[in-house]
Amino acid sequence: MIKVLRSTAFFLSLLTFATTSFAADKAKPDKDGWTYLFDKNMTQWTTYLGIPRAETKVTGIPKDEKGNYTQAVGFNKDERGVFTTSIVDGEPVLHVTGEIYGSVHTKQEFENYHLVVQFKWGTQKWPPRLTEPLDTGILYHVIGDHGVDYWKAWALSQEFQIMEHNTGDWWQIAGSQIDIRCEKTPAETVPVYNPKAPLVSYGPGGAGITCMRGKDAEKPNGEWNTLELITFGDKSLHIVNGQVVMALSNSRYTKDGKVIPLTKGKILLQSEAGEAFFKGVKIKPIKGIPAEYQSYF
């Protein structure tokens, strides 16, 4: 009997080692230097959900006398299935329903990298965006507490906007600041990126909270889009389906009157009242802005 138990324990230890090694291999760079960040169980990511709408049934969160929730759902609690992952054609695909504002974000911080994200739209929308374009986004250089932005769902960061026909915009999140070559045009109410325009400071104390992408490079709904974020030091590029739609520089924030560079942090995918799918998320370190993009700065 003792021998049987020892044999069983030995077998289980081998199985544990094999499983651990397999999981670790998932996070190792491939021969081209890319590290894939998705697996079926999203082991490299954490969820955070903000304050639900009053009509959304979520257990364990108090409400006030008017029936409104008074607290965020918080970390790694997702009974509504806002974020679910399935294997499609052998590849992990993340489904984001958008029902509650929040995120799935990396456990690890990153700096000086090239990120690739594939996404496509679903069809479902939720209040308060039932009549607005589908919306989600990539937040980068994410630091500090979650739930400190205007929707009480995200953390201080820069946003690579993903919104129908506005994919590649920049938005201020929780006080971030950045410089963009952006200008007003007769056709738009919001300033638009133009690589020949003067640099404009955005964020608190600057020109505003957003600058639109320079062109609409998005594919029709239902098709997969490839987004690339290249960031090195205080500079970054938003690339949509191979086309540069924005270049940004001097990434920073101000705290207690002191300007602080914002050049590294976690990576976050938003839930923002619109259904979306993500796959093929991969990252590799870089030693500088690639030569073919240096002219944008």
Radius of gyration: 21 Å
> How many strands, what sense, and barrel or not for the largest sheet?
12 strands, antiparallel
As residue ranges, the low-confidence spans are 1-26
Helix content: under 10%
Organism: Cellvibrio zantedeschiae
Signal peptide: 1-23
Keywords: Signal
Protein name: 3-keto-alpha-glucoside-1,2-lyase/3-keto-2-hydroxy-glucal hydratase domain-containing protein
Concise description?
With 297 residues, the chain is mainly beta. It is 8% helix and 43% strand. Residues 1-26 have low confidence and may be disordered.
3D architecture notes:
The chain has 297 residues and is mainly β. It has one domain (32-296): Sandwich (Jelly Rolls), CATH 2.60.120.560. The chain has one helix and 21 strands. The chain has one helix spanning 2-26, and strands at 35-36, 45-49, 74-75, 83-88, 91-96, 102-106, 110-111, 113-125, 135-143, 156-163, 170-173, 176-183, 192-193, 199-202, 210-211, 225-232, 235-240, 243-255, 258-261, 264-271, 274-285. Strands 1, 4, 5, 8, 12, 13, 14, 16, 17, 18, 19 and 21 form a twelve-stranded antiparallel β-sheet that branches. A hairpin with a 2-residue loop joins β18 (243-255) and β19. The chain is globular. InterPro entries: AL/BT2_dom. This is 3-keto-alpha-glucoside-1,2-lyase/3-keto-2-hydroxy-glucal hydratase domain-containing protein. Pfam families: 3keto-disac_hyd. Residues 33-284 form the 3-keto-alpha-glucoside-1,2-lyase/3-keto-2-hydroxy-glucal hydratase domain. Keywords: Signal.
